């Protein structure tokens, strides 16, 4: 790995990744929120959610603005939700992990962009129970753009496309059966499409772990975080979290699993 070959390069890469991650966390949190509320995420200035005062450059520095302003708006002194800070810190950490796991490579860039899509759709799903098609289309476009650099042969490309079809169709059939049994909508269409994208990125075996893990995370989420939400609960963030975990350790688990069969 190039990034570990020279300590100053490692430090430089980690710092740049942390800054870029925090900036994109700030942007994605805002974009997810705006999409969920039917607003354009490219047009319009950032405003304080309480007093609607337009925010200046000093208010928009990721992490630092929140910390130095004590988590309060500079104009109306109202408390700002810690979710802004959390979003920036999570994406900063994930960006650093991408560099440490995947080196300075196209795979690193691909995974960071994919994680960004997952993060944005999670915000929108938590906010308004929708998984925006745009985030899924962007994720597929990133995967396609990365293909020429993947080193995949036709067989591997075919396996990943098959995996996408298997998990997308499998979850669709399962959700239709559940709908009939429960007599209500069990999984949203967005969830089904998200499983399709997950299958495309992770392949057949790692996707299996990801599905199981997303069910576990979803269950914990229902038990601890969303008691008050009643019967409606966003599954997208659980699938996104499980997929992110598998991006980092999917190969390890897949090899261990196939090793059980002497493969
Ligand atoms: Zn304010």
Question: Could you characterize what this model shows?
Answer:
- This protein has 263 residues and is mainly α.
- The protein has 2 domains: 1-104, no CATH class; 105-263, no CATH class.
- Helices cover 70% and strands 0% of the residues.
- The protein has 8 helices and no strands.
- The chain has helices spanning 7-36, 64-68, 83-102, 106-128, 133-146, 154-182, 189-225, 236-260.
- Helix 1 packs across helix 3, helix 1 packs parallel to helix 4 (106-128) and helix 4 runs antiparallel to helix 5 (133-146).
- Bound molecules: zinc ion (ZN).
- Zinc ion binds at residues 48, 50-51, 53, 73, 75-76, 78.
SSE string, helices as H and strands as E = HHHHHHHH
With helices defined by DSSP (H or I, 4 residues minimum), what is the helix count? 8
* Ligands bound, unique: zinc ion
Helical/strand content category: mainly alpha
Features:
single chain, 263 residues, mainly alpha, 0% strand, binds zinc ion
Which secondary structure elements does this structure contain, and how are they paired or packed?
Layout: H1 7-36, H2 64-68, H3 83-102, H4 106-128, H5 133-146, H6 154-182, H7 189-225, H8 236-260
Helix pairs in contact: 1-3, 1-4, 3-4, 4-5, 4-8, 5-7, 6-7, 7-8
The structure holds zinc ion (ZN).
Zinc ion binds next to loops.
